[in-house]
Amino acid sequence: MMLGSAIVAAAVLLSGCQAADPLEGTSWQLLAYGESLPIAGTTITARFQEGQIRGSGGCNSYSATYRLAGSRIEIDELAWTVMACIDPAGVNEQESLVMRLLQEAQTYRVVDGQLQILPADGQALTFVPAH
């Protein structure tokens, strides 16, 4: 009976040893998307907490649930506020593109302190830690 209890205890311990979410509790600011830099005067952010990604798209706030599996990331359909921003010029188009790239995310990596989120088309969203 003791061996059976030890096996059950070991199984319980091992099931609790799954890798922790490396993005949990981190906050980031967009440095670049693809080959483009964010429009001057805009700040695009991402905060990962309790299975949620939340932030600013440069005009509107957004949120969604996310899941990680190894280097894969899946971001569910984003919900965001619907304010029309006219200044600076192009902010709405930039925000739409960044939101689309987040929703199409397939993989992520953290390299040299930068977070890269990559959709299938390869236009990486590159973030630096937010201050």
Give a description of the structure:
This protein has 131 residues and is an alpha+beta fold. It contains 2 helices and 9 strands; from the N terminus they run αββββββαβββ. The chain has helices spanning 2-15, 91-103, and strands spanning 26-33, 45-49, 52-56, 61-69, 72-75, 79-80, 105-111, 114-119, 125-129. Strands 1, 2, 3, 4, 5, 6, 7, 8 and 9 form a 9-stranded antiparallel sheet that branches. It is globular and about 40 Å long.
Task: Calculate the mean pLDDT score and round it.
Answer: 86
Strand percentage: 35-45%
Rg over CA atoms = 18 Å
Number of strands: 9
Largest sheet report? 9 strands, antiparallel
Keywords:
disordered N terminus; alpha+beta; 9 strands; 2 helices; nine-stranded antiparallel sheet; 21% helix; 39% strand; 131 residues; single chain
Please write out the topology.
Elements: H1 2-15, E1 26-33, E2 45-49, E3 52-56, E4 61-69, E5 72-75, E6 79-80, H2 91-103, E7 105-111, E8 114-119, E9 125-129
Antiparallel strand pairs: 1-2, 1-9, 2-3, 3-4, 4-5, 4-6, 7-8, 8-9
